[in-house]
Write a structure and sequence with these properties.
The chain contains 14 helices and 18 strands. It is α/β, with parallel strands linked by helices. It folds into two domains: about 180 residues, nicotinate phosphoribosyltransferase, CATH 3.20.140; about 170 residues, Aldolase class I (TIM Barrel, Alpha-Beta Barrel), CATH 3.20.20.70. The strands form four sheets. Strands 13-12-1-5-3-17-18 form a seven-stranded antiparallel beta sheet, covered by helices on one side. Helix 4 packs across helix 5.
């Protein structure tokens, strides 16, 4: 019991203490029996391709989890799309990593789910500015996980300040409704002008225009109040919104009619691919929140597939060490590692850790480029409208 936040420390994770109790019992039993076989274990969500692509994320944290332990680890590259088969493979004495399974699956499952949702948002509006606004919906201790996964999938920016410091990226954002409310009803111009006067020149001039009055009315007023206004942001609560696309269309028309063609429109508030698809003709940018941050973690599992050089697996799992390939037609091929792969297939499992040493660098920009290129290659598409 602690008096602070209910957060497990990084040191506790590295030590392997974030584990399910039955792994402690397993260690006790194997040590009592004098058994510690050399094994190969694989992490996978689906054994065969299913037609549903996901974006691999979490490899950086996984690598540091194994750092200093006598194991070899191979994994997909961050940003790689996959469809069945292993995404990570471990080889070593089982007791060297037995207690890490619980933490490992969490380090991969949650970021992969978030990155996949972020890629969906990215792909539905490829020419638009798309920002991650979702860390308010998750525990603050994983804010950097959310923002890193969003950037990995190609989103243009993040909002969480502390996460930005962890990632070496500057967080962005302008004003909440609370700022306008602090100036009082009817004083929206005072709020917008005060913001313009107060913040640095590098901060975009974006006025929130739906606090008290009609979105069209406030947008035109903001454009006239702030001479160098970049954009208006429309974040009307769903209960008052009506037809959001029609509202934005009216805003665009009215701004243009008043001579403010250079003022953009930024939309936010409960948006996902279905909503963005309807709004992209009128909005220049989008903030996506819970659709990305609240993504379901991918259901990864870890299974031993080889013991002492011999294929082994529990009932219902595919035995033997495997490889995965990207085929020239953009397919995802899963096969036994000791067999020849598909013609001109690109092997996707690459060294991550060798005898406890991390042998890979982790570049967010490179991962985002990889996700974009691989999405093109495999024909990744956001979900159809419900």
């Amino acid at each position: 019991m602690t008096d602070g936040f209910d957060i497990v420390s990084p040191e506790t994770i590295r030590e392997g203490d974030v584990t399910d109790a039955y792994f402690d019992r397993t260690v006790e039993t194997l040590e009592h029996a004098g058994r510690d076989p050399r094994v190969v274990a694989e992490v996978s969500a689906d054994q065969f391709p299913t037609g549903e692509w996901s974006v691999f994320a979490g490899a950086k944290d996984a690598a540091h989890l194994f750092e200093g332990r006598p194991v070899d680890v191979d994994a997909l590259r961050e940003g790689q799309l996959f469809d069945g088969g292993p995404v990570l493979r471990i080889e070593g004495r089982y007791l060297a990593f037995c207690r890490l399974e619980t933490a490992l699956l969490g380090l991969l499952s949650h970021p992969t789910g978030i990155a996949t949702r972020a890629l969906e948002a990215r792909r539905v509006a490829p020419e638009s500015l798309v920002l991650s606004f979702g860390t308010r919906h998750v525990h603050p201790s994983i804010a950097a996980v959310v923002e890193r996964s969003a950037l990995l999938a190609g989103l243009d920016g993040i909002s969480n300040v502390a996460a930005g410091e962890v990632l070496g990226r500057e967080a962005g954002g302008t004003m909440p409704h609370a700022l306008v409310i602090c100036f009082g009803r009817g004083n929206q111009e005072a709020a917008w002008r005060a913001f313009d006067e107060a913040v640095g020149e590098d901060v975009p001039r974006v006025a929130l225009c739906d606090t008290y009055s009609d979105e069209v009315d406030e947008s035109v007023r903001a454009a006239e109040a702030v001479p160098d206004l970049d954009s208006v942001r429309i974040d009307t609560t769903g209960s008052r919104r009506g037809d959001f696309a029609h509202i934005l269309r009216e805003v665009r028309w009215s701004l243009d009619a008043a001579g403010h063609e250079d003022v953009g429109i930024f939309a936010s508030g409960g948006l996902g691919p279905a909503q963005i698809r309807k709004l992209r003709a009128y909005a220049d940018g989008f903030g996506v929140g819970s659709y990305v941050s609240n993504a379901d973690p991918l259901d990864f599992s870890l299974d031993i597939v080889e013991v002492a050089g011999e294929p082994a697996a529990k009932r219902g799992k595919l035995t033997g060490r495997k490889s995965v390939y990207r085929t020239p037609d953009g397919g995802h091929h899963v096969g036994l590692a000791d067999r020849e792969g598909p013609a001109e297939g690109e092997s996707l499992l690459e060294p991550l850790v060798r005898d406890g040493e991390v042998v890979r660098e982790f570049d967010l920009d490179a991962a985002a480029e990889r996700a974009a290129a691989d999405a093109d290659r495999v024909g990744f598409e956001p979900p159809a409208d419900p």
